[in-house]
């Protein structure tokens, strides 16, 4: 595995057995790689296995065949080099925002002072220091999701995984959170892999987009969508490059071919 690669997905297939004993092929021979500090989106139509693939990278599911490596080590279960943010933050209602962020650190057996310091750093990173002592019912949807991101970042993972993290938010909050994610990436340099159904979001945020097609889920293509790091969301959205990349991604999502892209291969 090359030194500049954070995640290496090689020949991953996943077969489930339904309640009638029939095999359901969710993923077949999925292969792609993610560089360190890269933002990669997984997108495609419903049923193409995006969330299953993300769970396999996290170690929450095991592939039927194939292998995932993170930092050169095979994934055999959850580990501290990966953090995950789900669609809904799933916060503990009796805990404050800060205590929710500390939750993942408790499982690692860190001393209380060390846990608190790491949680405070993560809360500051997502801009919620002022709301650290509020409970989930006192937070807006966007604020709750930021607590979920802080909880994942508190363990200082090499790779941040996100499963449609902004899909449950209203349009204005979603756009704000997209900008904040880019700011967090700029400050931390984390490798980020996120699942999204949203074509525009995938093009705006990702350096590359891996498109999956269903029945069974497999990689159809990889599109280079990188903008300059200092480019704002508005500048990206108003650019000719955005319109072209959006068109190309739509072609891939619907199973059509476009020209080959340079970069790490699928």
UniProtKB/TrEMBL annotation:
Q: Where is the ABC transporter domain?
A: 7-239
The entry lists its GO molecular-function terms as:
ATP binding; ATP hydrolysis activity
Assigned keywords, A-Z: ATP-binding, Nucleotide-binding, Transport
- Output the Gene3D superfamilies linked to this UniProt entry: P-loop containing nucleotide triphosphate hydrolases (3.40.50.300)
Under Pfam families, the record lists: ABC_tran
Q: Does the keyword Nucleotide-binding apply?
A: yes
Protein name listed in UniProt: ABC transporter ATP-binding protein
């Amino acid at each position: 595995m090359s030194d500049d690669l954070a995640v290496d997905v090689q020949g991953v297939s996943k077969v489930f057995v339904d309640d009638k004993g029939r095999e359901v092929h969710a993923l077949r021979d999925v292969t792609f790689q993610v560089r360190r500090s890269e933002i990669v989106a997984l997108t495609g139509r419903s049923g193409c296995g995006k969330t299953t693939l993300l769970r396999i990278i996290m170690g929450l599911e095991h592939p039927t065949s194939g292998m995932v490596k993170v930092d050169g080590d095979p994934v055999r279960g959850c580990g501290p080099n990966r953090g995950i943010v789900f669609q809904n933050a799933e916060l503990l209602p009796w805990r404050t925002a800060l205590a929710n962020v500390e939750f993942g650190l408790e499982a690692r057996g860190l001393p209380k002072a060390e846990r608190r310091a790491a949680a405070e750093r993560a809360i500051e990173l997502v801009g919620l220091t002022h709301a650290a002592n509020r409970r989930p019912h006192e937070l807006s949807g966007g604020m709750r999701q930021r607590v979920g991101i802080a909880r994942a970042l508190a363990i200082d993972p090499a790779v941040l995984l996100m499963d449609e993290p902004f899909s449950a938010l209203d349009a204005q909050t979603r756009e704000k959170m997209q900008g904040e994610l880019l700011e967090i990436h700029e400050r931390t340099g984390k490798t980020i892999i996120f699942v999204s159904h949203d074509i525009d979001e995938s093009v705006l945020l990702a350096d590359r987009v891996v498109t999956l097609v269903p029945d069974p889920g497999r990689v159809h293509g990889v599109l280079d969508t990188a903008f300059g790091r200092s480019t704002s969301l508005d500048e990206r959205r108003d650019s000719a490059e955005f319109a072209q990349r959006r068109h190309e991604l739509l072609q891939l999502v619907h199973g059509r071919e476009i020209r080959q892209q340079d970069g790490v291969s699928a």
